[in-house]
Amino acid sequence: MMAVGMFVLLLFVLTAFRGSISIPPHDEVAQMARYVVHASDWCSMATISTQAVVRGLPFSNVFSVSDGPLGKGTGEPYLYLTPLEISVHDIQANPEVSLAMSLATTDYCRKQKFDPQSPLCCRVILSGRILEVNSTEIDFAKKALFSRHPAMPDWPHDHGWYFAKLNITNIWVLDYFGGIKTVTPEEYYRVKA
Ligand SMILES: *[C@@H]1O[C@H](CO)[C@@H](O)[C@H](O)[C@H]1NC(C)=O
Ligand SMILES: *[C@@H]1O[C@H](CO)[C@@H](O)[C@H](O)[C@H]1NC(C)=O
């Protein structure tokens, strides 16, 4: 009787957890990468600095990001940038960057009580080149960013904001114990949203 009670309790707890936020299985690495990227409203972007005091050194900064309106992720990390911004100066000199995104920026890790540095608090690191979004892709980039960042349309109109994205060349995923894993851009983009 006791055992049955425990079983029912366990089932209840598991159901409650699954019902809260469910993430892809940790061995579905490409799917996990797409999940973390889509769930992220912001990321850290590391550039090679052009500032005199740290020239040539890594410089990490915070940026709003979106890979599509909620439920319509494409995997393409879109950004809204201004040439006035300090990291954008770096990008103008060298567009090679790395973006880090983590479920620590969502409710998931907090609810599960996973520390942001725990391998269970899933994260993705992307590297590649920042490209300005071309005219055919601007409408989508705008919808992707403005739907998730409603303050953006009101940002100072004289700052020369433009839509950009990361052309991803390498992807690392840490979503479980046993070390970081890699996914190719082909595997990543093959995942159905
Ligand atoms: C714009 O970029 C998209 C995605 O990279 C590409 O498919 C499309 O051909 C490009 N269009 C133009 C006009 O360059
Ligand atoms: C994006 O990166 C891929 C792989 O490095 C490269 O082949 C491609 O030319 C890049 N696209 C653009 C528009 O720079």
From TrEMBL:
Belongs to the CREG family. Its main location: secreted. The keyword Signal applies. Residues 1-22 form the signal peptide. It is found in: Secreted. Residues 24-189 form the CREG-like beta-barrel domain. Gene3D superfamilies: Electron Transport, Fmn-binding Protein, Chain A. This is CREG-like beta-barrel domain-containing protein. Keywords: Glycoprotein, Secreted, Signal. One of its GO terms (cellular component) is extracellular space. PANTHER family: CREG1 PROTEIN, PROTEIN CREG1.
